[in-house]
Design brief:
Distance between the termini: 51 Å
Oligomer: single chain
Strand content: under 5%
Number of strands: 0
Radius of gyration: 20 Å
Number of helices: 9
Shape: elongated
Amino acid sequence: MTAWATLEPQPDQVRDPDAWARFVSADSYLTSHLFGSTAGTVLAIFGVFALGCFLANSRVGRLALAAMVMSVAGSALLLVPAAISTFTLPAVGRAYLDGNRDVMALEFPAAMQGSFLLGLLLAFVGNVLLGTAVWGSHTLPRWAGAAWLAGVVLFYVLGVVLGQATTGSSLPTQTAGALVMAVAGGWIAWSPVRQDRRAPDPAATLLP
């Protein structure tokens, strides 16, 4: 869902305000941010809770629980600027297209940027620790943890951070990272199901 939301990069607000205003005021922008970015983050929080609980009693239980707390805290913080972007920017874009050019001078509080950066840091570190926990758990596929780590670097470092520092929008690496994390997450989730199906039925072993 997050990969879908990052497919179309946002035009530069400073260089081409007209294109930016048309982009953020379109219905597709609201839909992709509401059901892609926001809903995708909410589902990721539930998934991280499930993974942390699954690994809680394993040999990496402490690491998994610390990773779960950091990842969930970071994702929750990132929901704040995501909600503002989803519901505020369309109104700003429509006001600009209606002739209110001064609306582009609006500035959000510095606390919003601080919340975004803190959430980004916590989400990155927490997800790195999650991938490390999967790698060292001996109960989940090690290479699924490695794939998760690769996706985290692609999404956060080469996607979000590099995109904000260069174009101010999403990069293809962000989409690629989200897809890699989705594949790794599916691999992690499916592995216990496969193990349960392969495990012998204890009742069957008691039959003569």
